[in-house]
Amino acid sequence: xxxxxxxxxxxxxxxxxxxxxxxxxxxxxxxxxxxxxxxxxxxxxxxxxxxxxxxxxxxxxxxxxxxxxxxxxxxxxxxxxxxxxxxxxxxxxxxxxxxxxxxxxxxxxxxxxxxxxxxxxxxxxxxxxxxxxxxxxxxxxxxxxxxxxxxxxxxxxxxxxxxxxxxxxxxxxxxxxxxxxxxxxxxxxxxxxxxxxxxxxxxxxxxxxxxxxxxxxxxxxxxxxxxxxxxxxxxxxxxxxxxxxxxxx
Length: 249
Prior knowledge:
By secondary structure, the chain is of the alpha/beta class.
């Protein structure tokens, strides 16, 4: 989640995203309401990045007070079909809620404004400019990272990415680089090498990018102390492992 002033920009929608957002609000991240996730940027369509998408669409719609605002979604080709199928799958739920006696009686149902993206600037408002760039993620034809340029921060999110890395071209001394966690050594498995970045490769990315803060996320099976120490021994910049509800400024 990128928060600029009082606006939230969500990257990916994995399992539990709505509950984590509610927990973040309880932790005091800002003057938000649970339904105020109205901008979503999807890196790719792997299930672990999208299983919370239906929850995001429907929970924000059912909870919102007043006339529901559209959820604006920016993602790779295929996100439109996924959205249409999810809305169709919950068609009976939507029909009951919008029908006579339902809590959203008379509503038109959840509104999702879907944009299938290509590399380049995909979103701009008075607070941020969001640029999508292609990353290599195994056999996925369309996988993206995102760069968020705000009035005081330049933030790059890798998404799931394997070499050859597109990150150094996007983060040249950027303020925060949020990069997948590199929990394995190179050459361990064909799948890992094709779909993800190894510890050795991440050291190269970090040294070429030189972010003011490197945040490791999306680690499996969880925070990897040995991997972190390996990176710190070969990269002299600031690097941390992200945990749920951490805040970086």
